[in-house]
Every structure is written in C-alpha cells, then in structure tokens.
Design a protein that fits this description.
Layout lengths: L23 H20 L6 H8 L2 H7 L4 H22 L12 H11 L2 H21 L4 H68 L4 H30 L26 E6 L8 H21 L5 E9 L2 E8 L13 H12 L3 E6 L5 E8 L5
Parallel strand pairs: 1-2
Antiparallel strand pairs: 2-3, 3-5, 4-5
Helix pairs in contact: 1-2, 1-3, 3-4, 4-5, 4-6, 5-7, 7-8, 7-9, 7-10, 9-10
InterPro entries: HATPase_C_sf, HATPase_dom, Sensor_HK_TwoCompSys, Sig_transdc_His_kin_sub3_dim/P
Keywords: ATP-binding, Kinase, Membrane, Nucleotide-binding, Phosphoprotein, Transferase, Transmembrane, Transmembrane helix, Two-component regulatory system
Pfam families: HATPase_c, HisKA_3
Length: 381
C-alpha cells in the first residue's frame, strides 16, 4: 500500500524532529568564535567604537548555542546585533563598525531554515531581509555587492532547505521501514504462535478425553503440551528480542521446507501427510521460509476451523520455474461457502504477493478445504 502525504504550506510546517542538543563540539566552536571576536576587536586597525562593537559581537555566543533548539530567538538576536550596528553606522555617520567574525550570523540563518517551524522561518527571514537591506544602505553597496550578498544569502537558505528536505525524506523512509517490519512481525507472530497454540489446544482436548480411562495417554498429551509451550515461548522471546534491539537480527530458528516433515503425524487426529518432491531445488531463504509458514498456517486453519477433519495433506513440488504448495483436508466447511478472511489468510496472501507469487484458498472439488500457493523459484529483484 502506498501512502500519499500532502505537503503542508510553509506557514504550517512544524519543526523537524530529532533536533540534536548542543554538545561538546558546539561549545568548542563557540569558544573559538569568542576568541576570534576578542582578537579581532583588539588587533584590527581602524575599527570604530572598538569596545562597543566587540561587546555586541559577543552577544552571538549564546545565540550560537541556541541555534537548533531556539532557532528564531537565535536568529533575531544575532541579526538584531547586525541591524543595530547598521543603525549606528547610519545615524552616527561613522566608518566601519563591523567585525569580519560577525559573518557567523549566516550560521544562524542556516539554523533558522534547517530547524525552525514554518512560522519561524517566515518571520525570521523577513527580519533578516530588513537587516540586510539596512546594511546595504549603511554600507552604500553598489550593484555588484548587492548581487553578491543576495546570492550568498540565497545559497545559505538553499543549503539549509536541501538538508532539511533530505532529513525529512530519510525519516519518512525510516517510518515506512518500521511499518513494514511491524507487519512482518505481526504475520510471523500469527503464523508461529497460532500454530503452536492450536496444537496445545488439540493435545489438551485429547488428554482430557482419555484422562480417566487411559492416564498414560494423558501423560503423553501433557508432555506434548509442554514441548509445544516451550517452543512457543522460545520463538516469542526471539521476536521480543528483535523488537527491542535496534539492529536487525534474524528470527531463530528460521524454518524452511526441510522442516515440513516435522509437521507430519499419524498418531493423532487429524493425521498429517507430508509429500515433498525429490526434485525440489535449493530455494532462496525468503521463499523457503514463506512455504513453511504457509503450510503451517494452512494446517493450523484446518485443525481450528474445519469440522470432522481426519486427514490433512501437504504436497510441495516444482513445476518449471515455480514451486507449488497444496494443503488440503477432508473436513466440512459448511455448504462450500468461503469463510471471512482472517489474519492468517491475509498474511499468507501478503507473503505470496511480496515474493511475486499467488495464493488461492477455497472449497475443494471433492470436499474439504484447499489452499494452493505458487511461488517463483528465484526471488524477483
């Protein structure tokens, strides 16, 4: 399923998530900026109002530390200082009152566009535009300087917008991957746990029926219940570990076609017959696992839902470039009507489609229920 998200207007754009806090490297950079301001303020020749200008430039120190978590406040502070210096230059008719290190306000403009909300970006950039126009007027800039300054500001804004957009795409992709993983885990959980719990229920019913007349059979049923419960707990722990760990880990154990023979049983009702084609090739892991899970889920559905079922057959064979799985039972499904599709059938269908195959389920020609899956021998790219 493809989800289409409508882009919000810039004014309503929220702040991006995952804003990193100020760290050690930020403090080192800010410290270097403060030292640069002090050195330039003391050593630069011909600087008007040297101490006032240096003190005003040092106001940018806290603004640089706020630039990510409070981008609008930082931008208004830094560019407000730049605007104040331009006002001083205009009203006092003095010479150069700016420090070269004041170009750090470009970092504040970048942070505003990269980390601010839409309202903060609109408000902050409008304020920056006014300050830039004031600075151009105070410096009596010619057309070349006006063009160069405008191009520099546009480049800073564009870079911030590009990095913001790329980070947004990456976060959306991460959400899509997590959603896909949740669906896969839900499918795996249903296929695995439902099968084991169904087996536990069948063994419990059998043990209860013979507990009084044949206690030794009831003990065997309890042993089977214990074994199924232990396997269920182990596989659930594996899934929980997968959910809790950030790095991907494989389900353990990952079952495949070779494990289908373990589903066969002749000492209980229904009996399960497994027939595997000797010509089956070595299958890719996704196909191998999907075939086992489909057979397991089909068997679980037959045990849980079919009435008066005595036999379930699992047949797997190769047919050219595809592998065919057929699971059939001899139960009664009620007037041949298809039941409401559940999570099991939905999960099997999703598995088949993801691998480029198909799945069908319905009443058989001779009664019972038949599930047929066709998967390619090679996984499509």
């Amino acid at each position: 399923m493809v989800t289409v998200q409508r882009r919000l207007p810039l004014w309503d754009e929220p702040r991006p998530g995952g804003v990193p806090p100020a760290g050690r490297h930020d403090r080192l950079l800010v410290g270097a900026f403060a030292v640069t301001v002090l050195v330039e303020g003391v050593a630069r020749p011909g600087l008007t109002w040297r101490y006032v200008v240096t003190a005003l430039a040092l106001v940018l120190v806290p603004a640089l530390l706020w630039r990510r978590d409070r981008p609008l406040v930082a931008a208004l502070t830094g560019w407000g200082v730049a605007g104040l210096l331009s006002v001083i230059q205009l009203t006092r008719s003095v010479g150069d009152v700016g420090l070269y290190s004041m170009t750090a306000v470009l970092v504040l403009l970048y942070s505003l566009v990269r980390w601010g909300s839409g309202r903060e970006i609109v408000t902050g950039t409008a304020f920056v535009a006014v300050v830039v126009a004031l600075g151009m007027r105070a410096g009596s800039a010619d057309w070349a300087e006006l063009f160069g300054g405008s191009a520099l500001l546009l480049m800073v804004v564009s870079l911030a917008a590009v990095f913001r957009y790329r980070a947004d795409l990456w976060q959306r992709r991460q959400r899509e991957v997590r959603n896909e993983e949740r669906v896969a885990l839900a499918r795996e959980l249903h296929d695995t746990v439902a099968h084991h719990v169904s087996a536990i229920a069948v063994q419990a019913q059998a043990g209860r029926a013979v507990a009084r007349i044949r206690p030794e059979v009831a003990v065997d049923a309890l042993a089977a219940i214990e074994s199924e419960a232990s396997r269920t707990l182990a596989e659930m722990r594996s899934m929980v570990r997968l959910l809790r760990e950030e790095e991907a880990v494989d389900f353990s154990p990952r079952r495949g076609v070779a494990d289908l023979v373990a589903l066969a049983r002749t000492d209980a009702t229904p009996t399960v017959e497994v027939l595997l084609d000797a010509a089956l090739p070595l299958l890719p892991p996704p196909v191998d696992t999907a075939l086992y899970r489909m057979a397991q889920e089909s068997l679980t559905n037959a045990v849980r839902h079919a009435r008066s079922v005595t036999r379930v057959g699992i047949h797997l064979c190769r047919d050219g470039d595809v592998v065919r799985l057929r699971v059939s039972d001899d139960g009664q499904n009620g007037a041949g009507a298809a039941p409401e599709p559940g999570f099991g059938l939905l999960g099997m269908t999703e598995r088949a489609h993801l691998l480029g195959g198909s799945l069908s389920a319905g009443p058989g020609a001779d009664g019972g229920w038949v599930v047929e899956a066709v998967l390619p021998v090679e996984v499509p790219a």
